[in-house]
Amino acid sequence: MKAFGAGILATLIVLAVGGFVMLKSGLIPANADGKPLPLEVWMAKTSLHATLRAQAPKGPNPVPFTDANLIQGVRLYAQHCVICHGTAQGAASASPVARGEYPKPPQLGTDGVEDDPPGYTFWKIDHGIRLTGMPSWKTALTRQQMWTIALFLEHMNQLPPAAAQAWKAVRPVKG
Question: Which residues contact 53 (CB under 8 A, 6 or more apart)?
Answer without folding.
Answer: none
